[in-house]
Amino acid sequence: MEKQNDLLMDSSILYRSTQKYYDKMLQDLNLSYAQLPILIEIYENEGISLQQIVQVGGYDKGTVTKNVQKLFSLGYISIQTSSKDKRAKELYTTALTKKHISEIYGIRRDWWHHITQDLNANEIEIFSKFYQTLSNHARSYADLEQTNLQFYKLKKLSLSDYEGHLSCSLYTGGCNLKCPYCHSRDLVYLKENRYPIVTEKINEYLESHRKDLDGIYISGGEPLMHEGVVSFLKYAKTLNYKIKL
Prior knowledge:
It is a single chain. With 245 residues, the chain is of the alpha/beta class. It folds into 2 domains: 7-142, Arc Repressor Mutant, subunit A (Orthogonal Bundle); 151-244, no CATH class. It has helices at 7-26, 36-44, 50-57, 61-74, 95-115, 121-142, 185-188, 199-208, 229-238; strands spanning 77-81, 89-93, 151-158, 167-172, 215-219, 242-244. Strands 3-4-5-6 form a 4-stranded mixed beta sheet, covered by helices on one side. Strands 1-2 form a two-stranded antiparallel ribbon. A hairpin with a 7-residue loop joins strand 1 and strand 2. The radius of gyration is 26 Å and the shape is elongated.
């Protein structure tokens, strides 16, 4: 069977294995994998604020607050009121952190050497840039409010999908049912390397052909499971299209 791209599974394996390694190596220090990047960020940027850690790491505030409080209770950091703003808190590492920081860096270094042991310097550099790019894209995409309805297939002209109308056909991806007779499995079980059609191209086609077509047939997948379907239908109606779902 041909192997499909599965970044989700590969990322999950890397994350879980890394967590397992760090939790094991840090247990004598009473630290965990979740606390480690926050502790290192404070050590390398003494006086950093909680909000700055949230922004740098892409965390939610509750997660950072929880781990900062844990590091404080363990004696690894101190929390001080900012001299510039009495409402702000600054985070500093303590003598306990400085005592163990070389060991912590060593644990991190050993793991990096282990997972990159079969890569040469050029491959590591390419991988690092690639992974950083993916991370930046993931962060920016996760912060967006997804309102556009995404389509994975466009049939530009149909005489049969919408009876009595000259129409185009659009197909969404994903479904909350698993019908055994489904003839659109490729749209239900979307592979990671299956990309949606760029929204602007869909809109451009609909706007340029509204005098030629009078209907839009929308199928999937299951169109009504997507939040963006209402805004798309409103948009299509402004172009005077009749709609069949």
